[in-house]
Amino acid sequence: MPAVATTTEAGSHEAPATVRVWDPMVRIFHWSLMVSFTAAYISADEWERVHIKIGYIVAGLVASRAIWGLIGSKNARFTDFIYRPSTVLGFLRDSIAMKAKRYIGHNPAGGAMVIALLVAITAISTTGYMMGMDAYWGQEWVEDTHKVIVYMTLGLVALHVVGVLLASVEHKENLIKSMITGKKRA
């Protein structure tokens, strides 16, 4: 049960009420994917065997998150954060004006980013796997596609970080901390 903010004496307050938003699966997935994607990127040119093993870890993480998006906790489910494109665009417009509605779970832009990143990383994993298959061995277009999607994903990651920082400032809450603790201000 979350603590309720109350005034105990003039000028002293208890901690504001919080609510658990991100379950352990979502938080472990998020940080594991960040570390694994970074390690895969760093190892790509120098340590092929390590890169391939990390690629399988990334694919497993994404598959786990996809399943959790169907059966997980309320805020982890895709049905909680997939919005119409018009809602996402309206939210982005309001965010730029610093007047966007605050959401307890993923906001419309954050939900769209989750889907975009999952699709992009799935495409990276698929093309990485294809490079090791006899049917695609030595096919330049597969490797080129893999690299292009990696760099597009890096762009998405940069947008994600900017969005998190913008929303943190706009709503005066530390969203990075909430992805560590699982809690947000109620």
Compute the separation of the termini in Å: 12 Å
Tell the overall outline.
elongated
Strand content: 5-15%
Counting structural domains, the number is 1
CATH level 3 topology: Fumarate Reductase Cytochrome B subunit
Q: How do the helices and strands follow one another from N- to C-terminus?
A: EEEHHHHHHHE
Strand tally: 4
Low-confidence stretches: 1-8
Helix percent reads 55-70%
Strand order of the largest sheet: 1-2
CATH architecture: Up-down Bundle
CATH class: Mainly Alpha
Largest sheet: 2 strands, antiparallel
Corresponding CATH superfamily = Transmembrane di-heme cytochromes, Chain C
Explained architecture:
The protein is mainly alpha-helical. The protein has a single domain, classed as Fumarate Reductase Cytochrome B subunit (Up-down Bundle), CATH 1.20.950. 66% of the residues lie in helices and 6% in strands. It has a two-stranded antiparallel ribbon. It is elongated, with a radius of gyration of 19 Å. The N and C termini lie close together (12 Å). The relative contact order is 0.13. The N terminus is likely disordered.
